[in-house]
Design brief:
single chain, BirA Bifunctional Protein, domain 2, two-stranded parallel sheet, alanine-tRNA ligase activity, alpha/beta, Ala-tRNA_ligase, EC 6.1.1.7, ATP binding, 15 helices, aminoacyl-trna synthetase
Length: about 450
């Protein structure tokens, strides 16, 4: 069994890690901000997806910040990552992001010095296990190697052989479109050869799991324009992000972010509920555990933020999370409703990461989740039975019309059906599905027109 490096285990709880991070930056004249609401009405994204997102007006120079140095713990929920949950040891849909920011104040050298000071002298990490990456440059942006960042790491005594230049995809940060951007420097922990690919050239940037990124230091220096070119920002900023679950995995020596203190009680509860079976592949079993605890923690965070399961917008995201988690329970052999019973263990494990008022509202969240799971239970049972009886074509493809019929007649989501089929090695003829959707719309439109003509 793979184990993390014992020398890196500190035993700090997630709450303690958070307090040490925030107090470190408070002592260095950073104003601590309250976490912004997870749900953002009228925003381009349904939920906060990054720690810096609430600070964009300051980073863009549109508003004056309350202080030039800021720090915070921000709850985030990324809907794009939902399908990735369970595929590795650290991908979450909902997570906590620790951050510190300079709004036109300090620069690369200062943030690098503070970052290494925190990691070595507060968190007690071994310098010999740390690697960093820097931006190697890109001729399309007319930028060369980020020599200032390299000099910053050398200045604090970082070994030059563990400073790795990487390209635009890895070490040039953007918002995903036009807007603030800049080179970044990522900090990695070497988890040891047992997690690696065996290559002597293995280093950050390799696709194996040996090097684990824990902190990203973004040097926000440019404005990325719509045509792909960049111009200097009038104000240079620093934006950093450290995933709480990631650093907890390292400091607690768990080897998986799903085994940290925030999830232990919920996993134990889940293991009590699951009957266990030798027929179930252990990798598949672990995948189910990860999806369930991740999705229910994300649901807890979202419902506490006022977003209940529903049909549209952000509400549909929460409904999908509940349904995916319920389906994973069936894989573990859990036939009764169980999701709401995981919420209290999750909330208790998060301690002061939730407010007292939020802890008091957990029973309300339990009722909402129980109702949603109960509504879906019969649909789930009949839908899984329907999918089991489907006969694919010779090429392993299932007719899209069948998925539409399952969705239209039984209310079973097409994306969840496709996920179930994919696990059996089957695919879906989505063109057939779309034809059925369009035909259904055509018939519905004609029916409506006929009805109104009669009226």
């Amino acid at each position: 069994m793979k184990r993390s490096v014992k020398a890196m285990t500190t035993g700090l709880s997630s709450v303690q890690i958070t307090e040490k991070y925030l107090s470190f930056f408070r002592a260095r004249n950073h104003l601590e901000l309250m976490s912004s609401p997870l749900a953002v009405p009228g925003n381009s994204t349904s939920f906060i997806i990054a720690g810096m997102q609430p600070l964009l007006p300051y980073l863009r120079g549109e508003q004056l910040p309350p202080a030039p140095r800021l720090t915070a713990l921000q709850r985030c929920l990324r809907t794009d990552d939902v399908d990735m949950v369970g595929t590795n040891d650290y991908k979450f849909s909902g997570f906590h992001m620790l951050g510190n920011w300079s709004i036109g104040n300090y620069g690369k050298h200062e943030v690098i010095e503070m970052a290494l000071d925190l990691l070595l002298n507060v968190f007690g990490l071994d310098l010999g296990r740390l690697w960093v990456t820097v931006f190697t440059g890109d001729p399309r942006l007319h930028l060369g190697l980020d020599e200032e960042a390299v000099a910053g790491w050398l200045r604090v005594g970082f070994p030059p052989e563990r400073i790795v230049p990487l390209g635009r995809d890895d070490n040039f940060w953007t918002t995903g479109g036009p807007g603030p951007s800049g080179p970044c420097s990522e900090i990695f922990v070497d988890r040891g050869p047992a997690y690696g690919c065996g290559s002597a050239e293995c280093r950050p940037g390799c696709s194996c799991g040996r090097f684990f990124e824990i902190w990203n230091l973004v040097f926000m220096e440019y404005d990325l324009l719509a045509d792909g070119s960049i111009v200097p920002l009038p104000q240079r900023n620093i934006d950093t992000g450290m995933g709480l679950e990631r650093i907890a995995m390292v400091l607690q020596g768990t080897g998986s972010a799903f085994a940290i203190d925030l999830f232990q009680a919920a996993r134990e509860r889940l293991q009590m509920l699951a009957p266990g079976s030798d027929r179930l592949d252990k990798t598949r079993e672990e995948h189910a555990y990860k999806v369930i605890v991740d999705h229910m923690r994300a649901v807890l965070m979202a419902v506490l933020a006022g977003v209940e399961p529903g049909r549209d917008g952000s509400r549909s995201v929460i409904r999908r999370l509940v349904r995916r988690a319920a389906r994973q329970g069936r894989i573990l052999g859990i036939d009764e409703q169980f999701l709401s019973s995981l919420l209290l263990p999750l909330a208790q494990a998060h301690g002061s990461l939730l407010t007292m008022e939020e802890h008091e509202r957990v029973p309300t969240v339990e009722r909402i989740v129980a109702r949603e799971e109960r509504m879906f239970a019969r649909v789930l049972t009949s839908g899984l039975k329907f999918l089991l009886q489907l006969e694919p074509k010779a090429d392993g493809q299932v007719a899209g019309e069948e998925l539409f019929r399952l969705s239209a007649e039984k209310g079973f989501p097409a994306d969840l059906a496709a996920e179930v089929l994919m696990e059996r090695g089957l695919s879906v003829d989505w063109s057939g599905y779309q034809r059925s959707v369009e035909e259904h719309r055509r018939v519905s439109r004609l029916s409506a027109e006929k009805h109104f003509r009669r009226g």
